[in-house]
Design a protein that fits this description.
By secondary structure, the protein is α/β, with parallel strands linked by helices. The protein folds into 2 domains: 7-175 and 217-244, Rossmann fold (3-Layer(aba) Sandwich); 178-216 and 249-284 and 301-319, UDP-galactose 4-epimerase, domain 1 (Alpha-Beta Complex), CATH 3.90.25. The chain has 12 helices and 14 strands. Strands 3-2-1-4-5-7 form a 6-stranded parallel β-sheet, sandwiched between helices.
Length: 325
Amino acid sequence: MTDIKRILVIGAGGQIGSELVVKLRGIYGNENIVSADLKDDVCPVLKETGLYEQLNITDAQRLAEIVKKHKIDAIVNFAAILSAVGECHPMRAWDVNINGFINVMEVARELKLKQVLTPSSIAVFGPSTPRENTPQETILRPTTMYGITKVSGELLADYYVKKYGLDVRGLRYPGIISHETMPGGGTTDYAVAIYFDAIQKGKYTCFVNEDTRLPMMYMPDCLKATTDLMQADFSKLKHHGDFNVGAMSFSVKELAAAVQKRVPDFEIEYKPDYRQAIADSWPMSVDDSAARQEWGWKPQYNLDTMSDDMISAIKKKIENNKLSC
């Protein structure tokens, strides 16, 4: 266990960050989790339940000021340009995902922070990687700028661990599904949008084909994996910034069937776009035995239990007129 007391969560307005802030405030106390994002019009809960700072991660001086101001001893970095948006703006993706990440690492090194947690992604893999049960150690030759930045981030994480002794940790997230905050420009966005459109519109047009199969994870498992890794004994970790984490894998056809089981009149059509090629370059399932062995990772949700919870939660939000931020 680490003795972390005050954490800065960057990119807190995003899909994972916004929910992780709430979970961390429940663990460490509201006053000890500082949220930060490029935007000021973020989910109200970030400002209502604790401290908030506006931050552009490419501004190293501002980042250092916030860390000193709040006596931060750990950083969780979720600031990123995701896969689909990154293909439209590749240089912006590099600037945010790499130059911004180096700012985090340098501030952590210079100010002697206790930990940095940075997300990686299944986007590190590419067409030459085994797609079934993708190994922890394998070929990393991605075809997207997002994937390239994530491979670079993993290598930088290991470099800072070995050269400076900095405690850096990271997970290769699969597609993350949540009813709280809509995702922001990822290739797996369909796995969230299908639930909302099924309930609100009764139909969904999918941008990948029905046979597309990718590893996915429900947000409660994502938050659990993240906090479990943060609290793991660093001395027992053989890997650092690149843990495979899995929960479930399903095709869009199987996902649609799970939705139709709960929303009988739901209809789906398929109009694949440029995101199909991205999805086809990613794993269909991953081998996460390293995470299970080194820090006890174990998911709790499958497609059915997730679908039950997603549909129930979305219907409740609609009834209460409280849809996602």
